Amino acid sequence: MHTTFVAVGDSFTEGMSDELPDGTCRGWADLVAARLAKDVPDFRYANLAVRGKLVGQIADEQVGLAAAMRPDLASFAGGMNDVMRPGCDIDLVLRRVRESTDALAAASGRLMVFRVIDPTRRMRTAARLLPRINRLIDAVDAAAAKHDAIVVDLFSARVFDSPALWAEDRIHLNAEGHRRVAEAVLRALGRDPEFEWDAPVPPAPPLPWSQRAKAELRWVRAHAVPWIGRRLTGRSSGDGRPPKRPDLAPYQG
């Protein structure tokens, strides 16, 4: 029974695009914490993840803090922001993944890692990233074997091919996507299932060509161009942004 849970990572773990009425992010980690808190009266939770962070930043800014909390359960998810960058040094990325998982495993009761979602069937331009993604997954699998970590396998789940699980920016999961990840995590933790997280999503009716073209133009203007601009100028959506739950504290969700 886990009494403390600390999550580190980027926007995936922060919960970006699963927004609450007050504008804050919820996400899969909060949903998991809420479920665990129901069973453990003194349960405490911290989420150090910040959107846009590269794996080196996660290692330098979050892992040490998480390790110092010595949680029963620590989750690590990172590296995809690096993989998506043209100048990615994949060998350095994998080294930082190993360092991070080693440190978290040594300081926590149990480490949890993720086999990342496969973007290649949903985004045609992502096929070029597959060799790097496969190496990242290999590093996660090696860490899991080394530390007897809990593995949440999202890579093989075809349900995430559905646009219905993604936000308008096509990069971040929406509320339903995070809900499904949370259920996958809880299943990996041995909790009784509440629904079939990997059940197919019924396809939406196809839009007329004109509506698809307008949606594509809106996406380019609102999301693609700003994303490219940040990459070219070395900026990140998480610059100056603090973690939403920096301290181990009771969770009421």
From TrEMBL:
Residues 231-253 are annotated as: Disordered. The keyword DNA-binding does not apply. One of its GO terms (molecular function) is hydrolase activity. Keywords: Hydrolase. It comes from the Bacteria. It is an enzyme of class 3 (hydrolase). InterPro entries: GDSL_Rv0518-like, SGNH_hydro, SGNH_hydro_sf. CDD domains: SGNH_hydrolase_like_1. Transmembrane segments: none annotated. Its EC number is 3.1.-.-. Signal peptide: none annotated. Pfam families: Lipase_GDSL_2. Residues 7-180 form the SGNH hydrolase-type esterase domain. The keyword Cell membrane does not apply. This is SGNH/GDSL hydrolase family protein.
